[in-house]
Amino acid sequence: MAVDYGLQGQVAVVTGSTSGIGQGLAQALAGQGVSVVLNGFGDPAKIEADRAAMESSAAGGARVLYHGADMSKPAEIADLIAFAHREFGRLDILINNAGLQHVAPVDEFPDEKWDLLIAVILSSTFHATKHAVPIMKAQGRGRIINLASAHGLVASPFKSAYVAAKHGVVGFTKSTALELARSGVTVNAICPGYVKTPLVEMQIGDQAKARGIPVERVVEDVILAAQPNKAFVEYEHLAGLLFYLVSDMGASTTGTALPVDGGWTAA
Asked: What's a BP term from Gene Ontology annotated to this protein (predicted)?
């Protein structure tokens, strides 16, 4: 039996939601009757097909729209939040999920890749939150969820920009949660272990090249080496935590960084 989390009629913006974790969480919210604004890059025809399919399966007549903001550009991020508010008249949930990866030794790490990862992962979280908070404050309620990754809590080699950005997201989560503690707006970070997303598929190849080992060994000895349960995290596992945090049950949970990582960060 499906659980009703009392979210029907709410509105969410999910950045980086044309594939992977963002798409999975957007789909889960639409299934609870939440109208969603998708965002991300990709083939326009596929994005439209996925948007239409998500809307057709959404509960309670929820709508699914798309905005193509480049999350490295502050003005476009501001327009994304304004678009959601303009179209729906409210904004209840913001999921800062946009991200990308580049794997290289720190002394060979391209300057432009460093700047891009910091912009898309960390700075976009600031810009989207900055513009969402006044809307949520005026409503007296809001939920901000930052996808911070297990790499927001621990480090791995060859991922200096990603790890730095994700640690920054955790710090930003804590700071903004304290600022908003009496406003009805909560801010939390979800820290997944490895989910078999297109981004992770790319990382497998990149790690094989950086370490000079076969792809098969990367999965067992590198990607899942840190996860004691030796299993990829499923989208449903993340959605379960998301529903708690964005529902009324999560009203007293704020400023946390919650791992969903098969025991990775327990060591």
From this structure: monocarboxylic acid metabolic process
Query: What pLDDT is stored for residue 203 in this prediction?
Result: 77
Report how far residue 207's alpha carbon sits from residue 224's, in angstroms, rounded to the nearest whole number.
Answer: 12
Q: Which two tokens mark 174?
A: 């804590």
Distance CA 65, CA 76 (A): 16
Whether pTM > 0.85 for this model: the answer is yes
Q: Which of 189-193, 196-200, 205-209 has the lowest mean pLDDT?
A: 196-200
Domains in the chain (CATH in brackets) are 11-193+234-260 (3.40.50.720), 196-232 (no CATH)
Distance between CA atoms of 58 and 51, rounded to whole angstroms? Answer: 10
* Cβ–Cβ under 8 Å, residues 36 and 62: yes
For 71, how many CA atoms within 13 A lie in the half-sphere containing its CB? Answer: 28
The residues assigned a catalytic role are 162
Query: For 16-31, how does the pLDDT look when each residue is reduced to its tens digit (9 = 90+)?
Result: 999 999 999 999 999 9
Alpha-carbon span 38 to 26, nearest angstrom: 7
Distance CA(36)–CA(221), nearest Å, equals 38
